[in-house]
Amino acid sequence: MTGSAAVAERIVVGYIPSPQGIAAFERAKDEAVRRSGRLVVVNTGHHGNYSDAAFATAEDLDAIDAELTSAGIEHEVQQPTAGRDAAEEILRVAEEQRATLIVIGIRYRSQVGKLLLGSTAQQVLLEAACPVLAVKESARSR
Length: 142
Known about the structure:
Layout: E1 10-14, H1 19-35, E2 38-42, H2 58-70, E3 75-78, H3 86-97, E4 101-106, H4 111-117, H5 120-127, E5 132-136
Parallel strand pairs: 1-2, 1-4, 2-3, 4-5
Helix pairs in contact: 3-5
């Protein structure tokens, strides 16, 4: 280095209250500790829909905030409602934060399911400007 301080790692995790979302959050938390990084948790419903099952409750987000605070992890929890889809929000936040890593949860989907419904994970993997870590739920949680 040439006398300047190292830029802290910035990790963005796409979180939804599901086994895949929890697995992604846990791995992102581990990465933040390992890298001494800042963690940004992003939760959004389908197109910012508050009634969508992917939209975490205030209690869920408070628990995440408390867990990260207790672990001493510098963090921010965002729940954007601008009407973008989840992939667009994750990518927007990653760019805004100048993320060094994005962590997302993945699940198995049939070829027809991917064709009809698209894939948040696929869009993030293909469009991210930084490395993406795709995490499956553990076999124990299935």
